[in-house]
Amino acid sequence: MRKVLSSLAKTANLVADGDLVTFGGATFHRAPMAFVREMVRQGKKELNLVDREPAIDFDLLIGAGCVSMVRAGMIAFEIFGMAPNFRRKSKTREIIVKEGACQPIISGFRAAAMGLPSLPVKGMLGSDLLEISEIVGGQKLFEDPFTGEKMIAVRAIEPDIAVIHAQKADEFGNARIEGPVYEDVIKAKAAKKVVVTAEEIVSNDEFRKMPEATTLPHFLVDAVVHAPNGAYPCSCCNYYEVDYDHIEEYLKAATDDRFDEYLKQYVHEERVT
Question: Rounded to whole angstroms, how far apart are CA atoms 71 and 98?
């Protein structure tokens, strides 16, 4: 096994302008926020973001001017409503928004993970979603060759890079996620490159003691970063909860036209805790 432990700044260089990017976790839970902030500091541009249900991770990059296109089932701040920068830049058409739905986006990731060009779904049949939805790479109606049923073929979604925050990792790239895994394993198998940020770097011997607890094996992972509090202000199961006070401060800055001040204080000066 080769060692892939690296610094946050060096690893963020794996993301190129214009890349198709996805993140692990969901809403305010285990988003790789330390990596997101480093992407902003490095001035990434023209990114294409895709995910099922992101929140502040996507919204921060959008507000910082790093994003060209977004595809998601929903981008919202849970009880606080719509993501403010996403909503504003969608209305002004500063970003391109491809309407999506959770099921076909997950199926697109799953198809890529399985090495298939597409997978069939049925959930959008009979709804307007079929007309307004644009999944990465497209979708097509077809008839099942065995039953004649109408189905929707969703093309595989293969991100250029998936960034996943985990509780533990070793220097070789083995990673252990505690609590909900969401679609993180599927994304890791679907993506061309995978980065893991981790609360703790532990020995490979620790992983060998409980191999069944390994969520992502080393051969899927291109780089590992030691990032304590790397999901903050989102939660990280068994480590810390969501800082809703900080979320409210973020929302106030984004809605009061003070987002540049927020970026200066909490991103460029890296004062998050």
Answer: 5
Summarize the confidence of residues 157-174 as an average pLDDT: 98
Indicate whether 31 belongs to any domain.
Answer: yes
Give the domain CATH number at 223: 3.40.1080.10
Provide the residue range defining the domain that includes 223.
5-100+158-261
* Number of domains the chain is built from: 1
195 and 168 in contact (C-beta within 8 Å)?
no
**Helix axis angle, 56-63 to 84-91, nearest 10°:** 50
Percent of the chain past pLDDT 90, that is, above it, reads 85
Helix (H, G, I), strand (E, B) or coil at 5: strand
Name the helix (H) or strand (E) containing 198.
Answer: strand 193-201
Averaged pLDDT for residues 22-45:
97
Examine residue 107 and state whether it is found in any structural domain, yes or no.
Answer: no
pLDDT of residue 157: 95
Residue with tokens 């307004």: 132
Q: Which amino acid is at 99?
A: E
**264 contacts 272 by C-beta, under 8 angstroms:** no
Burial of 96 (0-12, 13-18, 19+ CB in 10 A): middle
Q: Distance between CA 46 and CA 69 in Å, rounded?
A: 7
Pull the structure tokens for residue 57.
């991770």
Query: Do 223 and 170 touch, CB atoms closer than 8 A?
Result: no
pTM for the whole structure: 0.93
- Residue 89, H or E segment: helix 84-91
Burial 5-21 (b: 16+ CB within 10 A, else e): bbebeebbebbeeebbb
